[in-house]
From TrEMBL:
Keyword Cell division: no
Listed name of the protein: Mini-chromosome maintenance replisome factor-domain-containing protein
Pfam families: MCM_bind
GO cellular component annotations of the record: nucleus
Organism, scientific name: Lentinus tigrinus ALCF2SS1-6
Keyword set, alphabetical order: Nucleus
Matching PANTHER family: MINI-CHROMOSOME MAINTENANCE COMPLEX-BINDING PROTEIN
Length: 538
């Protein structure tokens, strides 16, 4: 019986909704009742996966009108005005969720609208997650292909929508249709746009595909969370260390000219995230300097074909959320990095990315020229993201900064970034002959990928480390304080900033080993890594 009812909800959710209204229409908060009902109906993973997904291979127009679908999206704009809808028609039937009275009946009774039945729903734009990697989408949906681009979502449960913030990742489950919408308020011309009348939602954390920390066992087909349920399960430190070593070697060989040291620092950036805002414990920015510029592009190929560092594809194979940003003076001067409100609509900016994104910024396409006002504003916006993890949203007479969580890795040909101040600088030590430089920009299909099982352990290590926290036991804390005093005695130039930097590196090192507590050994090794890095810069 439950299976038949669930099938009916998949094929004809409107009828199920109307029946629900006839039985429970007097509920104090019917939209909330609807959300709870459908959420419970599809609460098991098996039943939830039966809901069709909106994506490139299955766009809105390929689905039957008013069928049930789900769309995982980033909330782009929550500033649209609420809309009024008739929650109960004159015949006593359910209103809302795109359910309207028959045209003839509604026209004859237009003057008899009971305004006490008018309620508000929230309207927002939701776009496909801009930084989502293919493997992440496949793990969540078991489907190939990118996501649908953008949709207009009508959310009737007002309590639920009040929790949404710009750049949140949410899966909207509802009834697909089309609605007339005014996209250009200066012309007031309504066009039909894909619309989702939301029945319930599922929120996602910054990790999207969470993994445990610390890792307990190797990932298997039956165990997609990397967790052992048996009582004998225990952290396997040696396996974590071996996996980490293999991961660094693979990253170095495929994307960094064999430089193991640079690969280790890139790994630190991959697992860094906002740990706290008060006090600020933010992901440190990294520049990989001395990174060769891309090989010359043939004159027959347009400027848009500037090669992308292979590191971009390597990061996409490891991380659920990663975004490549290839800089050029033209793109800096013409593109907006910050969201801007125009005609009461919020227009997206390049840096409007979900929390938990790792951004790879390449300066290889920058040539001589003039940086205009828009370019200067864009550079400032990205610097603000790196320094304070905030992004300004520009409104007609003001601007407000909203929190972000974007870890930034910059690759540049010079000794330091041409535009940005970074927390860490690691020079690339790799061959610079033409073949070696070309290998740094080889396409994704030329990367030697590890086995699926090995790649799964790499992802478990990286994504799990992003979810972890490291505690500093008293014994380690006392050792660190004593060593800091010794360093100050040896060199009066050593300051508290150096101690903060060493602590940051040591915690990232512990996370990369899946160690929940910072040991003296890990602290010493991390400090040595930082000393070696600084020596390369001198």
């Amino acid at each position: 019986m439950a299976a038949d009812y669930r099938t009916q909800a998949l094929q004809d959710p409107t009828t199920v909704l109307q029946e629900l209204y006839r039985a429970h229409g007097n509920a104090e908060n019917f939209p909330r009742f609807v959300a709870e009902h459908f959420s419970q109906l599809f609460e098991t993973p098996g039943s939830y996966k039966r809901i069709p997904t909106l994506n490139v291979s299955s766009p809105p127009q390929s689905h039957q009108d008013r069928s049930l679908v789900r769309f995982r999206a980033m909330v782009q704009d929550t500033s649209l005005s609420t809309e009024m809808y008739l929650s109960k028609h004159n015949d006593g039937s359910c209103g809302g969720w795109g359910i309207y009275e028959a045209e003839a009946e509604s026209s004859s009774s237009a003057r008899e609208v009971d305004y006490t039945h008018l309620q508000e729903c929230s309207v927002l734009w939701a776009t496909s997650v801009p930084a989502e990697s293919e493997w992440c989408a496949h793990e969540l949906d078991q489907l190939e292909g990118g996501m649908c681009r953008i949709i207009c979502a009508f959310v009737y449960d007002r309590n639920e929508v009040e929790t949404f913030k710009s750049t949140d990742i949410v899966t909207f489950i509802g009834i697909i249709s089309t609605e007339a919408c005014v996209l250009d308020r200066t012309q007031e011309i309504a066009i039909e746009v894909p619309t989702l009348h939301v029945l319930f939602t599922k929120s996602h954390g910054p990790g999207l595909v969470p993994r445990v920390f610390p890792r307990l066992v190797r990932r298997t087909e039956e165990n997609h969370q990397g967790v052992s349920i048996g009582e004998s399960a225990k952290p396997i430190a040696q396996d974590n260390a071996d996996t980490r070593r293999e991961l660094i070697r693979w990253m170095a060989e495929e994307a960094l000219g064999g430089d193991l040291r640079a690969a280790e620092w890139v790994l630190f950036s991959c697992i860094a995230r906002v740990q706290s805002r008060h006090p600020p414990l933010l992901p440190p920015s990294l520049v990989v300097s001395r990174f060769p510029a891309p090989p010359p592009v043939p004159s027959t190929v347009g400027p848009s074909a500037t090669p992308v560092p292979t590191l971009s594809a390597v990061l996409a194979a490891l991380l659920p959320l990663t975004y490549p940003l290839n800089l050029s003076l033209e793109s800096l001067n013409k593109t907006r990095y910050t969201p801007e409100s125009k005609d009461e609509d919020l227009h997206a900016g390049v840096l409007q990315l979900p929390q938990g994104t790792v951004m790879l910024v390449s300066e290889g396409g920058v040539r001589e020229g003039q940086l205009l006002e828009q370019g200067i504003m864009n550079v400032r916006a990205l610097q603000e993201v790196m320094d304070a993890q905030t992004l300004a949203y520009v409104f007609p007479f003001s601007q407000f900064s909203f929190p972000t969580d974007i870890s930034c890795i910059i690759v540049t040909e010079g000794r330091k970034s041409a535009f940005f101040r970074t927390d860490f600088n690691i020079p690339l030590c790799a061959p610079n002959d033409s073949a070696a430089v070309a290998a740094l920009y080889k396409p994704a299909d030329q990367i030697k990928m590890p086995s699926p099982e090995k790649l799964a352990t790499f992802r478990d290590l990286v994504v799990g480390a992003r979810c972890g926290k490291v505690q500093v036991p008293e014994a380690t804390s006392e050792h660190i304080q004593a060593q800091f005093v010794l360093e100050r005695q040896r060199d009066r130039n050593v300051t508290a900033d150096d101690l903060i930097r060493w602590m940051t590196v040591s915690k990232l090192h512990a996370l990369s080993l899946h160690e929940p507590t910072l040991s003296v050994e890990t602290w010493q090794h991390a400090k040595a890594l930082d000393d070696q890095r600084r020596a390369l810069l001198s």
